[in-house]
Fold these 2 entries.
Entry 1:
Amino acid sequence: MGSRILVVEDETDLAELVAFNLRGAGHDVTVAHDGNTALAEIQRSQPDLLVLDVMLPDISGLEVCRRLRRKAQTVRLPVIMLTARTDEVDRVVGFEVGADDYVPKPFSPRELVLRVEAILRRTIPAADVEGPQVIALGELVIDVPAHRVEVQGEEILLTALEFRLLLDLASRAGRVQSRDVLLERVWGYSPNAETRTVDTHVKRLREKLGAGAVHIETVRGVGYRVLKS
Ligand code: CA
């Protein structure tokens, strides 16, 4: 089953090459050549995934991603960023921006297609969740099928990746999870994911959870543990 993918890149040859390869893999692809058009298109057609270049003629891809992450409707939209400069990578994967993954330019279209499919695979439909439907840890409440997280009654907007990380830890409360195990279960296939990636995401998750962050404990030299209640 193909997914609906929006490709945002102002270099038309590259945009077409990416679109061609994604269509070849069975996806339904739309192309936008600047950031504002992309934002309007996302609102209109609600794609399943975004391939987003950093360098765009109007607003940068970083800003596009930041804006998507501020809204409940798009905070979980999977985003793969195309980066041309290595100094962009830390901002993209530093999750200041909240992208799910990145592909450095130049890249092979085949590699990009593989990354897209890996991300689509790990975007689990809410209906498929097994185990408890609601996990409550004091004032931190995770409504699993709704993908909704609340701390002291206030909804916290998490990206799809942040939600899966929290859920993975919370559903194994009381047990330490190593960075390697978390990488395998939460990230799946991603050549860019390193143990540092886990730390960066946990940091970001803690910031977002505020008072709820007390439930995530760092186990020095090993990994992380969510404390029971
Ligand atoms: Ca560009």
Note: The radius of gyration is 18 Å.
Entry 2:
Amino acid sequence: MEAKPLYSFRRLILPAIFVLGLFWVTWSRRPATTAYYGQAMGTTWSVQLADARQHNIQEEVQGQLNIVNALMSTYQPDSEISRFNRHDTTSFDLSTDTLKVINTALKVHESSLGAFDITVGPVVNAWGFGFPPSLKTPTEKELTALQQYIGSTHLSIAQNTLQKNTANTQIDLSAIAKGYAVDKVSLHLQSLGYENFLVEVGGELYAQGQKDKQSWLVGIEQPTKEQGVIQLVLPLENKALATSGDYRNYKERDGKRYSHTIDPRTLRPIEHNVASISVIADTVMEADAWATALNVAGEEEAFRLAEEYDLAIYMLLREQDGQFRSRSNAAFAELLQQGE
Ligand code: ADP
Ligand code: MG
């Protein structure tokens, strides 16, 4: 008679392999969310990845953001934009990335009836919001002198080149480049096959797919100096969200608040009661630019433009008594309901 092996392959080892296999499958399919953090473009970034299979994306995300910064920063003297700002009135070759951003900027400029304008930089600096920051107030004469260089109509695009018709016209992409950077990282993650992630740079974000089989939940902050107090939680799936407001970046002099957002039509900091405006769109680049545009436009005009250009918006308005009043449009209400 043949001796039976102590551990029968069929009775013990095979079931053991089966059970271990089952463990492995359940474990590897578990919706693990990994968070990555870093700094870029003068602010912080974060990415949450919720796909089952993942690899470490820290360096890749940082790399993508560094590319955008090296092209569009006005703080780096050798960036593409800084070189264009020093360039004369002959045509200037642009990278595909910068071309996309400037094209969108010019579109939003036109649609917002001039409220969004990437040539407003010299006026931003004149009000002391450039680098180094200061408390200065420009004189009427200084503003009139700058007037002749301000206006996106000084810029024209032909194929992949950009041209200005006055050498002193300058470009400042601060109100749109962060949004574009989020789009670029999102596209990169998509190209790697990822389907569920949340990418954020300086508060502007894109939510793709889901987390734990539900839409991503993102917070809209209260427009106060303290960071991270949540006013509203919004479910977001395959959508971009950007917020613009005067609640963090402003200066106070003689009890008056000066916003770092300038109305290009008056060359003065905006002064109305919009504390913050959040815009939901398909790309973060558009949401970012529109948030600044609608902040300049003010309450009534912002709601009119949102209808015309199909944007979901949520606004917090500063009341006389220091309280906030919220107002949103139907497109925004619909997004909120989808999460219920
Ligand atoms: P916010 O979160 O308030 O939108 P951003 O950093 O996105 O802040 O944009 C504000 C910056 O955009 C300003 O610091 C300035 O450089 C630039 N900017 C100010 N006014 C305008 C405008 N009307 N159009 C385009 N860019 C502007
Ligand atoms: Mg903005």
Note: Residues 9-29 form the longest helix (21 residues).
